[in-house]
Amino acid sequence: MDAYVYLKIFWFLILGILLMGLAIMVGMDMGVGTLMRFVGKTDGERREALNIVGPHWDGNQVWFILGGGAIFAAFPSLYATSFSVFYIVMILLLFSMIMRPVAFEYRSKVPSHRWRDSWDWVFFISGALPMIVYGAAMGNILEGVGFHFGWDGQYYQTESFIWYLLNPFAILCGVLSLSLAIYQGGTMLMIRGSGALYDRARNYASVGGIAALVLFIIGGFIVSGMKGFQLVSGDPGMPANPVSGQTVTLANGAWMANYSAHPILWLVPLLGLAGMVLGVLALRANKPTLGWWMGAVAWIGVIGAVGTSMFPFLMPSTYNPDQSLTVWNGTGSEYNLVWMTIFGLIFLPIIISYTTWCFRVMRGKVAAPDAQDDHAY
User: Fold this and answer.
1) Closest CA to 200 of 377, 35, 29, 34
2) What are the φ/ψ torsions at residue 7 (nearest 5 degrees)?
3) Residue 2 main-chain phi, psi, to 5 deg
4) Which residue, 268, 279, 267, is CA-closest to 213?
5) Model confidence over 62-87: pLDDT tens digits?
6) Which residue ranges in the chain fall short of pLDDT 70?
7) 83 CB contacts (<8 Å, ≥6 apart)?
8) In which element (H, E) is residue 359 found?
9) Are 275 and 250 in contact (CB under 8 A)?
10) What does the alpha-carbon distance between residue 23 and residue 296 come to, in Å, rounded to a whole number?
11) Interatomic CA distance for residues 29 and 106, integer angstroms
């Protein structure tokens, strides 16, 4: 294989890492927002929950930007097609993401129960909705998307977006994603919270971990039998041209082909299962830090299993499978990927180091802020 093919594979892996980072870090914040109304029975406890993620939530949004930026720069065809297919879904996602920082800033500005309770519902919606959409999108892509391209490369959508979002398998994937976010958010509340908040967070996080475990197993059985896509022919070194150059077939159980060809890949979904089981056991043993890392392992296993099953597909087409977007026909030019690699190798370690430093500096327990404390959320 030439350098261009290696760069394509490298950026497929980088995209997976960015999606994992987004799920772990942003999912943790979303989990706290989803749980806040339930783990916090008083205004002080809810403010304590907000201040646990307060120093980090905006910095964690970097992973959201990085994921979108990597798709835009390294996989332009995927960016254009996916944002068109899921356009209305993206609008809902962005609306909820916009309301989230507003809720952080406005919630505690007025000492009114009705005012604060309303913003607490905003936190719930802006926490749960993005994670459901995140998981449902992956479920939809596994099932295939109804689109095709004209002779001039013009994109055409052939099915309603509502079916993509609301079909049973996509909903299962969305609830799985939300369950893992609840688990991760609950462990963070345990790490930095105390008292009744700690106990309630442990209970909700344990339920989230168990629910994720059950849903992941059910989803695995569904994927093993669903109609998947298989690349029959296609030049890995081809330019970004989804209109021609490859042959794709559909077959039941095709998403299991990579595991059959390389049995060592079974370690990826097993990693997810192990993370969920060990994570719940860690929480019940009151070891939330270990539980947090096991939650990260679970996310890595779940997203890694999706990528392992689909490779080299990025977004398969149910209308014209030969026009499915793959790693081979959906990436940018070699020149583009080279510069992306240079910048990625520089800035990704900086972001990881900065995030680690922030969590280290702001470690420790967080107490419920005083009612007159205007410097806390």
Assistant:
1) 35
2) -65, -40
3) -85, 175
4) 279
5) 888 888 888 888 898 888 888 877 78
6) 1, 152-153, 159-165, 368-377
7) 90
8) helix 334-361
9) no
10) 9
11) 17
